[in-house]
C-alpha cells in the first residue's frame, strides 16, 4: 500500500536514466555572488537572501526543465558538480560505507563520484525508504525525542510541532557555510522551520521555536532542490532536518527521479535517533552534526533535552560508520563524509574538551571540525549567565589549543582565520 502523500512522479521515473538541468559554467557564473559571511545557522540569522524567504517553486516546471537534459555524470559530459572528481589524496582511506560509489570516469581520467542515493533510486530501495519513513510518522520515533504520536493526524504534542507537512523558512545558495560546502558557488540550503531542540540561546529562535515559514509538500521541496542544482550550488544542504526526515526522503525520491545529482548534506543539531539514521543510510552523502555539549546536564538546562551527550555521540558514531572521514573533490569541494561543528560557549558550558576527546579518540583524528567562536547572547540568553555575554577570546584560544592537543588537524579555515586575527 502506498501511503505517501501527494507526490510528483515524473513520467520517466522508472526508465533508469538520470537527468538534470544543464548548469551554466561561464566564468561570471563561477564567481561568488557575495562575500563570505560568518556561519549563521543556530548562531545567527540566515543570510540576506535567505531572510527574504522564498517563492514556492513551480514543481511542474522543475519536472519539465529537470527532464530535458541528460546528466553528464553518466555520459561523459560532467557538468558542474557532476564533474570528474578525485579522492582527497591526503586521506589514507576511503569512506567505509558499502554505499560509496567511486568509479572510473568515462573519459578515463580520475574517478567519478556518484551521490549515494542514485544507486538506491535505481534499485527501488529509495522508494521503499521513503514509504517506510512516512510510516514512522504514525508513531513517531524519527528523532531522539521519541514522542511516539501520530503526526499524520496531528502535530499536537509533538516537540517539533510538525505534522505531515514540513515547513520551510527559506532556501537559496548560502556562502556562510564551511569552506568545503560553500566552494565557489555556494551551498544549496533549505532551512526547515521548527526544531527538536529548545536552545535558550538560539539566534534563529523565530524559525526554530516559533515556526516562521511555509508549509510545503514533498514535490515542492524537490522543486527547490532542482532549482538549487540549476543555480549551480555544490550540494543540497538540509538545515535542521531531524524532525522532517520522512518529508526529506519523499522529496529526494522525487528530485532524484527528475535528475538531481548533487551530494546531500544533513545539517543537524545532533539529536538524531538510530531509527532515522538507518533510514538515511546510503541516502545522505555528507553528515554535518553539531556536537553542542559534552555534558548532558548542561544540555538539559540550556537546550531542554535529555541525554544529549549520549545521543549525539551515538549518532556521530553511526554517521561516521556510514560515510567515513570527509573526502573532497580535486577543487576542494566536499563529496562525502563527516564534518562536526562545535560552538564554544562562554564558561565552558559546551564541555569542549569532552567533545574533542570523543572525536579524536572514538571517531577519527581526521574528522573535519568546525570549531566556532561566534557565540553572541540571543533569545533568552540573558536569563542564563554566563550565556549573557559573548565568548572571550581567551576561551576560544583555549579551545584551539585543545584541538591541537588532541591531534585534530582538519579545522575549517574560517574558524582558524578568525582565531588568528583575534
Ligand atoms: S520528529 Fe522528534 S520531536 Fe518530532 S514528533 Fe517525532 S520524535 Fe517528536
Written account of the structure:
The chain has 422 residues and is of the alpha/beta class. It has a single domain, classed as Aldolase class I (TIM Barrel, Alpha-Beta Barrel). The protein contains 15 helices and 11 strands. The chain has helices at 27-30, 48-51, 59-66, 116-123, 125-136, 179-182, 205-208, 218-231, 245-257, 274-280, 296-303, 308-323, 352-363, 393-405, 413-420, and strands at residues 102-104, 111-113, 166-174, 187-192, 214-216, 236-239, 264-268, 286-289, 327-328, 334-343, 368-372. Strands 3, 4, 5, 6, 7, 8, 9, 10 and 11 form a 9-stranded mixed beta sheet that branches. Strands 1-2 form a two-stranded antiparallel ribbon. β6, α9 (245-257) and β7 form a beta-alpha-beta unit. α3 (59-66) packs across α8 and α8 (218-231) crosses α9 (245-257). The longest helix is centred in the C-terminal third of the chain and has 16 residues, at 308-323. The model is unreliable at 1-52, 62-110 and 417-422 (pLDDT under 50).
Which structural traits does this protein have?
binds iron/sulfur cluster; 11 strands; globular; 422 residues; alpha/beta; nine-stranded mixed sheet; TIM Barrel
